[in-house]
Design brief:
Number of helices: 4
Radius of gyration: 15 Å
Structural class: alpha+beta
Strand content: 25-35%
CATH class: Alpha Beta
Shape: globular
Largest sheet: 5 strands, mixed
CATH topology: Aminopeptidase
Distance between the termini: 45 Å
Order of helices and strands: EHHEEEHEH
Length: about 140
């Protein structure tokens, strides 16, 4: 399988947003084009959407943002979302996408790469640990 990694663009919207529906396990969630921030994200200089393609078909994505935080001298990169179509997993797609983000962080002298993962995804946790991530904190959330 010939896997290519590239940045997303506005023309990728329909195909990528369908994958986001699969990612959140709600295929209809994004069928109305006012329920996402894809187009704003594409134009944000601190937000990245990288796509994995095979034969020109988008088979996965990783999104990440970059920002400065007071506690570190260099900016951080935070992986926001990460998804590969189930029938494309275990073929190196996940590793290529993740390695691409990790390389970007290293090339740009980021302090850390952070990510949060649902506690119900032990297979994903094992994958992250294979990239030398360690569990170090809890994440909490609430609506304003």
């Amino acid at each position: 399988m010939d896997i290519k990694i590239r940045h997303a663009n506005k023309d990728d919207y329909e195909e990528v947003i369908k994958l986001f529906g699969d990612f959140v396990e709600d295929p209809d969630r994004y069928c109305h084009h006012d329920n996402d921030s894809y187009l704003k994200s594409i134009d944000d200089p601190n937000f990245y959407i990288d796509l994995a393609t095979s034969g020109g078909v988008i088979i996965g994505f990783i999104t990440y943002s970059t920002r400065s935080v007071v506690r570190y001298p260099n900016p951080i990169l935070e992986v926001e979302e990460f998804y590969v179509k189930p029938d494309q997993r275990r073929g190196g797609v996940e590793r290529k996408l993740f390695q691409n983000a990790k390389d970007f962080a290293k090339e740009n002298n980021f302090q850390y790469v952070f990510l949060a993962s649902s506690k119900d995804r032990p297979i994903a946790h094992k994958f992250y640990k294979s990239f030398d991530f360690d569990e170090y904190a809890y994440h909490f959330r609430r609506k304003p």
